[in-house]
Design a protein that fits this description.
Layout (H helix, E strand, L loop, with lengths): L2 H9 L11 H6 L5 H111 L4 H16 L7 H15 L6 H14 L18 H15 L10 H4 L6 H20 L3 H18 L5 H14 L11 H14 L4
Helix pairs in contact: 3-4, 3-12, 4-5, 5-12, 6-9, 6-11, 9-10, 10-11
Length: 348
């Protein structure tokens, strides 16, 4: 029995003891005592415990619910993050696959480019050698015809410059042959054609100023005294009717004044022909035209005139200039180019 129950029992007034009941009724009456109280206390404790447990369980349930909701949200976020990561992974894998395919494709293209470069380099050298052969053949023909060797020299230097840009040891012999021909052309004593052409152009522009023998009057003779004066007056009157000339060449005296135009045109044609022969390096025709022009000036023009005398002197100086020396040949360079082409193409 608990202590409160004991205190209640002690404080209660003592009543006289009831008379003893019969035994058969004593057995039927329920016994009320500390056991019932204990039961009720246990029930109250259980109810309190249940209430407390219920409140605790409610709190736990609400907390668990919140945690579950937070967990579900976290799981949803994690799921979205996982999906995003998977999408990024798939994208990265796709990009890696594309890059790998491009790398493989680039490697294949690199191999093809190397093959193409080697092929083009070979073709470029072959084409360059073919062009060099054509250029050398043309330059040789021009030199044989008496053309300016400076043009052939420029062509050889251009060919050598283009060959120097080819990284091909098989054309070393060609370049050495070209260099020897270049040195020979540089040492070739060519005439100053430009200066000779300018001198001829000056003479062509001065032809119209040269006096003809047919148009030169005899100088009047001086006299003295009154008789001389009368003779001078008479001579002046007679000169209005006649002209007295001294002509050393009879054919020049027979030229009428109206034919002076044709005399000048013939001299112009001779000088123009000499100019053309000079430009074409034809030494024979050049010297022939100059000689005929000198003879024409001495026969039909007044050589006492300063302009005519100066023209004759210039033509004689030009006549002493040789414009066509034996030019060097380009046979060595041609042979070297043809040998290089034959070595690269045995079936050629």
């Amino acid at each position: 029995m608990s202590e409160p129950d004991k205190a209640v029992a002690e404080d209660a007034p003592r009543s006289p003891a009831p008379p003893p009941e019969p035994k058969h009724r004593r057995a039927q009456r329920p016994v009320v005592g500390w056991r019932d109280l204990l039961v009720w206390a246990a029930l109250a404790l259980a109810a309190a415990t249940a209430a407390w447990t219920g409140s605790r369980l409610g709190a736990l349930e609400s907390g668990t619910t919140r945690r579950l909701q937070a967990g579900e949200q976290r799981i949803a976020q994690l799921g979205a993050a996982v999906e995003l990561a998977q999408a990024q992974l798939r994208d990265a894998q796709n990009r890696a696959a594309v890059l790998e395919s491009k790398v493989l494709e680039a490697a294949g293209l690199q191999v093809q480019l190397e093959k193409l470069y080697r092929s083009l380099a070979s073709d470029s050298t072959d084409v360059l050698l073919a062009e060099a052969e054509s250029a050398l053949a043309l330059a040789s023909q021009q030199l044989a015809l008496g053309s300016n060797p400076q043009a052939a020299l420029g062509a050889l230097q251009e060919i050598d410059s283009r060959l120097s840009r080819q990284d091909d040891p098989s054309i070393g012999g060609v370049r050495r042959a070209l260099q020897r021909d270049i040195d020979r052309l540089k040492a070739y004593p060519a005439a100053d054609i430009a200066s000779l052409v300018l001198r001829l152009d000056g003479l062509l522009s001065a032809v119209d100023q040269f006096p003809l023998l047919a148009s030169v009057s005899a100088a009047p003779q001086a006299s003295s005294g009154a008789t001389g004066i009368g003779l001078d007056a008479l001579r002046g009157e007679l000169q209005q009717l006649f002209r007295v000339r001294r002509v050393d060449t009879p054919d020049a005296a027979l030229v009428a004044p109206g034919q002076a135009y044709f005399l000048r045109q013939n001299l112009l044609l001779l000088l123009l022909n000499a100019r053309l022969s000079l430009l074409s390096r034809n030494d024979v025709l050049y010297r022939s035209d100059l000689g005929r022009a000198i003879g024409w000036l001495r026969s039909y023009y007044d050589d006492r005139d300063r302009g005519v005398a100066g023209a004759v002197t210039q033509l004689r100086q030009m006549l002493g200039t040789h414009i066509a020396l034996e030019p060097p040949t380009l046979a060595e360079s041609l042979a070297a180019v043809r040998a290089a082409r034959a070595a690269r193409d045995p079936g050629r």
